[in-house]
Amino acid sequence: MSCCLLDFGRVQELRQVREFLFPKHNSAGPEEEKTQAENELTWDDSDWGSWENPDGKENGAQAEEEEQQQSAPWLQDCVLSLSPCSDLLVIAREHKAAFLSAKWRTGESGQEEMTLAVTWSGTLSAEEGECISSVICIPLASQKRSSTGRPDWTCIVVGFSSGYVRFYTESGVLLLAQLLHEDPVLRLKCRTYEIPRHPGVTEQHEELSILYPAALVTIDGFSLFQSLRACRNQVARAAAAGSDVIQPPPLAYKKWGLQDMDTIADHSSIGITTLSVFDQMKNASILGGFHASVKGSPPAMSQYITVGGGPYTGFFYAIEGSSQPLLSHVALAVASKLTSALFSAHSGWLGWKSKNEEESVQKQKPKVEPATALPVRFGLPDSRRHGESICLSPCNTMAGVTDDFGRVTLLDVARGIAIRMWKGYRDAQLGWVQVSEARGERDLATSPSMPRRHAQFLVIYAPRRGILEVWGTQHGPRVGAFTVGKHCRLLYAGHRLMGVNSVTSQGWQIHTQQVCLFDPVNGALRAVTIPFHLALSDKKSERAKDMHLLRRLTTLLRSREVEPALLESEAQSVLLDIKHPAIKKQALESLLSNKTAPVSCLTSVTRALLASLKEQDPEAVDESLLQFCSSQLKLLQLYTDVQLLHTPDTSPTEPEQPSFSSIEEDLARVGPVLQRYTEMNTRPCVSFAQDSSEPLPVRTFLSQLEWVNGELRVIKQPDTDWTQLGSFLFWGCLSGQSPLQRVCETLQESGISPQQLLSLLLSVWLNKEKDILKCPDAVSHLHTLLSTLSSMKGAVDESWDGQCVSPWWQQVRTACVQSESSAAALLAALVAHRVAKNAITRLAESKFQEWECVSLELEQWMVCIKQLEDVLALQTLLCLPSPQGPTGGSVTRCSVKTLLESGRGGVADCVSKLLFRQGVSPDLLRDILQRRGENEPTQQPAQPGGEEKLEGNELLECVCQRFPNSLSPDVLFAHCSWENVVQWNKDPEVGQYLEWSVEFLKMISSPHIQLGVSAMMWQTFIVKRFSAAAFLMEKVGKAPKDRLCRRDVGMGDAAVRSFLGSCVQLLQTLMEADSAVEEVSAPDVCVEEVWGGAEGPVSIVELALDQRSVHYPLVQHHCVLASLLHATMTFCLRLKPLSLFDSKGKNAFFRDLSSIQLLPSGDTDPSLVAVRQEFLMNVLTGWVKVLAESEENGVKHSGAEDMWPSVCMELSSLLQVNTDILRRHLVCELYNQGLDLRAEEVMMEVQDKDVLGSQLLVLTGQRLAFSLLHSQSQTKPNMELLARLPPTRCTWLKAMDPSELRCPSVPLSQSSRLINKVIEMLPENHAQYSLALHLLEAVDSFHEEP
């Protein structure tokens, strides 16, 4: 009930606007930009405390002040204008401007909030050297009958230093430009239609006034409105037709030459005024003397007020009809064309010439009409004071004036006198707020025809002090003060919508903002809200007195140290003294919501207030206040009664032994899983300590209960609030500290429905699971409470006949299936099932119902309990701690409802996420599932204990037994494969994720599922990175480095190598699955019977089965490319992979695998085959080098490394390369590396022995040449061996180059064995057969000698 400053919008992109308007800031250094950003986003407290002591600043703060002036007050150098509808903001400086329009978005709190974002920015000046001097936004009303008061569009009027006035749309399109005077435009102001408050007020016409240093131009609002609409329509038609915009005709205006003032800074157009007869005679006597004549009727005059210097304030009066509207010579010259132009299709807007024809005219400045002299009638002379601005009140009766002395003067417009002055407001900015009195029903009944009262408040923003003040006028006190920033701007339009009149405004609710404070620090737009009663005098207003009492009570409640007795007496006194019912209710609400007031005080005060209301005349008492007091007193009494029962019960009620014995049987059945769940959830964790002995605060209790039609209801709020209230009512009973029967009787007598009591009981039970699991007797107490609540009147419908489900027990089941507290939900369901079964049995015995009618409710309970048992086992598994610690991911909570809503794959999805967090490998999961298949389906898991890993395996086996269909091996493997590839996509550097994903994929036994999952993985995650890697290698022509891989593929070079290997495995799996699809039928996706109602997202398996079949040759085509890329990255080879394929092959890459593409066929170009052969040879060479290095280092090579020869042979058949050539090359490379045994193994598969023999003979010669000729020590045996050879053979050995051998130092025994292999391969008629024999004889003789 006091003044408040509320945020109603926010300006976005403010920094971009500043950089656009102040380009010099963009050239600042990094440190300066950082400082500027911090100043824009933080509070400026460099001048903190200047409000109290403006002159007491220290000299040491001058540097900070200079920095502040350079960075923060940039908005003071700009011209700002906000539309009165708050949907458009214009910020301009020099020749640039930015238009910001309103947009609505959803904030963090979920509520819609308005933001202003830049929609247009650019340069507005057209003449050289001109700058923007004034801007005003005028919203134009819609002419449609369906309009409700919102503007059709907004026109931006801009005045320039050249004298031009231009009109723009919101998108920066120029509509109209006119030179009315050759001096700079000082100020633009607009007056729009206001609904008269009573018949005596003269209806004012709309107009736009433009102030120049010595002239004032006024444009009639009606003609301006019509012209702007026509210009906008013409621009839209020209844009649609693609033609040039036609120059529109000029506006009609009046120009007054203001005389007898030295300088003019601002003005206000008051409108048409009519003097009274006395004022007319007085003015005539002053102006004409004693013999002056007086006209019969006072003339109508337009009043203008200017501020400046000499005099300080000037009052001008222009008699209506004394000056004709002015038109420029252009309009007069073309007036004769008007008739014919209306029927000309090519004449443009109203027949004026086109743009090209008027170029010569536009280059010349238009003629400026002379002004009509208007002398000042009187003023406020003050030779030293200079006025800076004037702000007219909404009712045109007062005006606020600022000057260079730091004063704010309040003028009486009609009398022309200063009635009030404030000092200490240098550089002040003014605005007005007009508030209407709210009329109650009683006022409308007593005086419906009386007009509502209005109050006007002057808003003053003092930037030097950083304070915004609200003052009542004319002589009212300061009613509000707010501490704001020192660089804000107070935006006051002073007008509303243009184009509104007394007819069109009927039924409209024009939403306009009167005063707005713009804070450039955070971009907030704030509106000042003022209640009407602040304008009333304290002596005459009961409401003001009541507000004073309310503030007194609020101050008392805020004080921390106050005695309860003093608080009770003061609050009671204040409440009884307040007269107005609404304020009395507000005071009572403030008292009841106080957190320190004791309940005895609240009860006493409320009882006293209720008694005083009952003693008054019933017709004079507000009925709503009486009902509120009565209901709150009942709630306080209930709170007191329940609080007294929160004491340990001396004779607790014993539970029913027969019923509880049956519950123990159910508990024994779920005991192992329940015990393990309890152990999982009772591990040490961080929690906030709460005082459990502290009762529920009374204000919270009152805020959650309400009386509706004589019934006590719980207000629907979040679960935490329900839990808090439920704990207050029932936790004492559940923990055995309160008498169950007495508590239930008290609650039943209070009027709360049994259904809401049941909701509160279930809320506290389901949300305090940890405390319940620690309390051994909680289950028995819950049994007693449920039995008692079920026997209450209105709980179970007496007319229930068993043919349908009971709403009472359905409420229990609904709460259990929605709860994520699995153990508490299962216990509640078991207890409720037993209570319901006993009640149904008694009902059947009393009414002799058939068993078929009873079984319907019990069947619902059996399904619910089975679902809750399954969820408990699953939740126990999900609670396993992650091996990565707290960063491994939070525990997934599930309920029956979430599993039913997650579709048929919800269970497998949860388990796959858990297995990923646990780091379970594919082999380990396969072993666990195989053990599950070997066990009996009915076998229960062992008791908890042993190692953590064993415990996790047992839990997984238990869950798989409960979900035999949802967690079948193929379904689980498919989900694990998908989860791993999803995680790999988030972190591609970890190649193990993708490798495990492919391994899981290979374990799927169904080819249909395997095919679908492979195709989805390829299309969703793989093909984009795969194509990026291929194009990157094609670009660089070799295995790319780590930097390039990270830039193009998104992972390092090592990760790319692993990724390409996984791509090969994935495509091979896809081909194998496609080959086996025809042999078996597609499997059915089924779930367990109790989970048959699952609805939600389609599972991975269902999506896989819906995938289209792939085109096998296209998959094989991609597999060849993947193998080539993998080999290139593995052995760091040079290759442009796409160059190994013709145009058909290139075009087929990276297409949808299910599409039919045109693939290469027939014989390939020999040059292409040669390039392929060379690359495959390089792959074999690289493999041999890696193999030799691993054997030299003693590293045991894996089986994956031995697969490269077979891969090359498979690729050779697909790439039309001769396989035998590759084998011969591999044999030679192995001998070259000294791996003779491996070479002999491969030699057996070579077909062309003759060529291989010739190649190996050369290699043998290189070995012997190194041993005999190039060795470090030339021994005597070596010389003798050379002597035995014929000269031709010696020459042949000397011609051999042993530098080509990578392992030249090979024992002669291996060389002898190699020569024997050569002799075996060469036929006797071969040209080199004799050479091989000579070499063999020489080597053998060398071995025979000692």
From TrEMBL:
Taxonomy of the source species: Eukaryota, Metazoa, Chordata, Craniata, Vertebrata
GO-annotated cellular components: cytoplasm
Protein name per Swiss-Prot or TrEMBL: RAB3 GTPase activating protein subunit 2 (non-catalytic)
All residue ranges annotated as the Rab3-GAP regulatory subunit N-terminal domain in the record: 74-491
Organism of this sequence: Cyprinus carpio
Pfam families noted in UniProt: RAB3GAP2_C, RAB3GAP2_N
Location of the protein in the cell: Cytoplasm
Record family assignment: Belongs to the Rab3-GAP regulatory subunit family.
Region (Disordered): 26-68
The keyword Cytoplasm is assigned to this record: yes
Source taxon at top rank: Eukaryota
UniProt keyword annotations, A-Z: Cytoplasm, GTPase activation
Single annotated GO MF: GTPase activator activity
Residues annotated as domain Rab3GAP regulatory subunit C-terminal: 756-1323
Keyword presence, Cytoplasm: yes
PROSITE patterns linked to this entry: PANCREATIC_HORMONE_2
